[in-house]
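Field reference: sequence -> structure
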Amino acid sequence: MKKLILLSILSVLVMSCQKEIEFKGKSKDPVMVLNGVVENDSLFRVYLERSVFFLSSENASVKYISSGALLKVTNLTTGEVYTMNESTFPSPNLYEFPFITTPNTQYKIEVTHPDYPSISAEMITTAKVNLNSVDTVSVIKNQEKLLKITFNWNDPTTENYYMVRVRQDIESAEYSYTNYLYMSSTDLSIDNSTNTDIDGSVYPTNTFLFTDTKFNGQQKSMEFLANYYSPSDDPMNPVDEKVYCELISMNKATYLYYVSMTASLQTDFFSEPVKVLSNINNGFGIFGSLNYSVKKL
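Structure field:
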């Protein structure tokens, strides 16, 4: 793509005349970071770590908090309270609570640790939004064979926030991997500004984030053109392929977190830095909610 080629050339030119400048600022004291995006109808799971200085060369695992913290989760809808003070095997910073996350429920989480400021957050889990069906048909566009995939669902009358992906799971006796199909869409609810080239052309992406502003409370059909390639089938190493269409609904905080995270990952040398959203009091991270609805093709 022209944009990537131009940025690569500019990066080389800048790097060829770069000069190292010693950082003389003051680093901030570390705080706790909570990754708490919980899923409906699944065990309530959160991840805990500490922040690190952006110039730090520490190994990523060093920042994990596996002990010393006290996590308290309160179901504000029912009044139930759960606590944990040790991470859950085998992940060093996973805290898995012994209850199932329910939709339309208000939760509060509080975390204390002797070495860091206490953190807290509240949120209401998203309602269930389920796919009614997924339709597929092969099409030819610009002499290229594509797969048209149509998602169909009933959008609730409340504000709703979505992510759409198509997951391809490949497995054989020798390897296994997951791939998310690159797709394009001209639906009016899709904002393609983050995947538009400098010449105005729109290129495919593997994740779509959007709201129901233009179809609130309606039955919705959304079309995508996917660059789909079936894995080669070697008789000596047969491949098992499964393709899943994912409609992921989420609460507003989670949506804004993913939007800001996507924007931050797409910045280049000449862009203004993008601050990733955090709704954690006294710390960083996200306390949010997802609902997965998945159909197998």
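Note: The helical segments are 2-16, 252-265.
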